Structure formats: C-alpha cells, structure tokens
C-alpha cells in the first residue's frame, strides 16, 4: 500500500514537471523553422554562445586554482560562505549589485577612462554577470570533487618522489576528469540561461545585448508569443542535452567507482 502511494506521488510530480514542458515543446516546435530563419534569433543564438563559452572558460580558469587552494587551506570554512553568497542570492539582486559597483556610482567611470572597459549595457556586461553568478557554482563543484578524491593514490605518488606539480598533473587531474567535464557542462548551461543578473547589467537591447533569455522577454513584451515559445524550445533542448550528458558522465563515473 505504502509503495503504491510512493509510485503515485512520483507519477504526479513527474506529470507536474513534464506536462507544462511538453506543452511548450508542442507549441514551440511548430514555430521553430521560422524562428531559426529570423535575423534577431540568429543574433541572439550567436551572442549567447559567444558570451556563455567565454564566461565558462573564465570561470574554469579561476575556479580550478581557487578550489585547489581551498581544498588544502585551513581557512576554507571561513572563506567559502562569502564565496558561495551569490548562490543564495536572487540573481536580480546580484545584477543590481554589479550595476552599482561597475556603473558610474562605483568603479565603472575609472575603468572606462583608464582601461576603456565598459560593462553597463555592453556584451562585456553579459559575461560579467554570467561569471559572477556561476563562478561560485564552479568552485563548489570542484571543491566537492577534490574532497571525494582517493587520497591514497595521491599519497603513494608523493611517497614515490612525485613533485606537487607532477602529482597534480598525473594523478589529481585524471581522477577529476569527470568532475571537470561536468563543471564545464553545468556552468555553460547556467551561463546560457542566465537572465536576472544579465538584464540588470547589460539590459535587453535588440541586436546589441540580446541573448536567448532576454530575447524571450522582449518578444513576449511585444506580443510575439510564437517567436518567444520557439526561442524557449531552443533553450530547453540545449538544457535537456546538457542534463543527459551530465547524467551519462556520472553514470559512467559511478560504474567505474564500483
């Protein structure tokens, strides 16, 4: 009896999650060919891919050494709550904070005068927002991955005379392969779908700072519901691909672990 109730609960929750998405897919797929041919959608896809790939590379380059340092640091329990703060904040709050700090009320004027760097209402602002909200997530994934490593292999490598760099390159990195791939996939997927922080910093100017999430909002606001649904389907298909890839990687990782 109890088992049947659990099956019923799982079915109801699955329907609750899947049914709206299936309806969106059904309505949006019919408009997909038209959307793909739209110059606006092509621009949004190109800019989304460009900014999300660059911001993911930046996140990984910063997260890897920070995670390695925190893993071996005695102060990590004091530092990590501050590093992870953007994970707990609504993304629109992160966007407001970035807008203030990198705008003319903060260091924006200084950066623009001396380094010709402008973040507000620019492509750079999109990447800034994506890095800000996703860097703590990437650090967290890598720290968890490092904590799950088999310490005995690293210890044996050190006792056999391997330097710290050799140990990291030949032992730690291969053991972290699945975690690194998963971090790249999930960080890129989150960057691609980022909306709240991006719209506060970079705005939503058509054919200038228009990425896929802001393009949905722009088209909904002008009554272009069909185009908005088609763009949403594009994002959903990308997210589903990332989710399936992530599950495939970790299923293989769990099988290897056995």
UniProtKB/TrEMBL annotation:
Keyword Transmembrane attached: yes
Residue ranges crossing the lipid bilayer per the database entry: 5-25, 45-70, 82-107, 127-146, 167-188, 227-250
Listed Pfam families: BPD_transp_1
This protein's record includes keyword Transport: yes
UniProt main location, coarse: membrane
Source organism superkingdom: Bacteria
GO molecular function, one term: ABC-type sulfate transporter activity
Membrane topology classification: Multi-pass membrane protein
Residue intervals of the ABC transmembrane type-1 domain: 45-246
Signal peptide: none
Subcellular location, record wording: Cell membrane
Keywords of the record: Membrane, Sulfate transport, Transmembrane, Transmembrane helix, Transport
Subunit structure: The complex is composed of two ATP-binding proteins (CysA), two transmembrane proteins (CysT and CysW) and a solute-binding protein (CysP).
Role summary: Part of the ABC transporter complex CysAWTP (TC 3.A.1.6.1) involved in sulfate/thiosulfate import. Probably responsible for the translocation of the substrate across the membrane.
PANTHER family reported in the protein's UniProt record: SULFATE TRANSPORT SYSTEM PERMEASE PROTEIN, SULFATE TRANSPORT SYSTEM PERMEASE PROTEIN CYST
Family stated for the protein in its record: Belongs to the binding-protein-dependent transport system permease family.
Protein name per its UniProtKB record: Sulfate transport system permease protein CysW
Species per Swiss-Prot/TrEMBL record: Wohlfahrtiimonas chitiniclastica SH04
């Amino acid at each position: 009896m109890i088992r049947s109730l659990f099956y019923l609960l799982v079915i109801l929750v699955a329907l609750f999650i899947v049914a709206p998405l299936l309806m969106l897919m059904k309505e949006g797929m019919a408009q997909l060919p038209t959307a793909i041919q739209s110059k606006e959608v092509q621009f949004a896809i190109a800019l989304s891919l460009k900014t999300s790939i660059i911001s993911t590379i930046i996140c990984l380059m910063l997260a890897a050494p920070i995670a390695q340092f925190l893993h071996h640091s005695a102060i990590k329990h004091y530092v990590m709550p501050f590093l992870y703060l953007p994970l707990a904040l609504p993304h629109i709050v992160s966007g407001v904070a970035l807008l203030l700090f990198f705008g003319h009320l903060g260091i924006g004027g200084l950066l623009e005068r001396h380094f010709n760097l402008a973040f507000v209402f620019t492509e750079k602002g999109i990447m800034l927002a994506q890095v800000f909200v996703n860097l703590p997530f990437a650090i967290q994934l890598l720290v968890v991955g490092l904590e799950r490593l088999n310490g005995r292999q690293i210890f044996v490598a050190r006792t056999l005379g391997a330097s710290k760099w050799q140990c990291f390159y030949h032992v730690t990195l291969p053991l972290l392969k699945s975690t690194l791939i998963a971090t790249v996939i999930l960080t890129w997927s989150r960057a691609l779908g980022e909306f709240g922080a991006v719209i506060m910093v970079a705005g939503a100017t058509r054919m200038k700072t228009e990425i896929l999430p802001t393009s949905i909002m722009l088209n909904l606001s002008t009554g272009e519901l069909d185009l908005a649904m088609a763009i949403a389907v594009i994002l959903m298909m990308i997210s589903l691909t990332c989710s399936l890839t992530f599950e495939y990687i970790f299923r293989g990782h769990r099988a290897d672990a056995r």
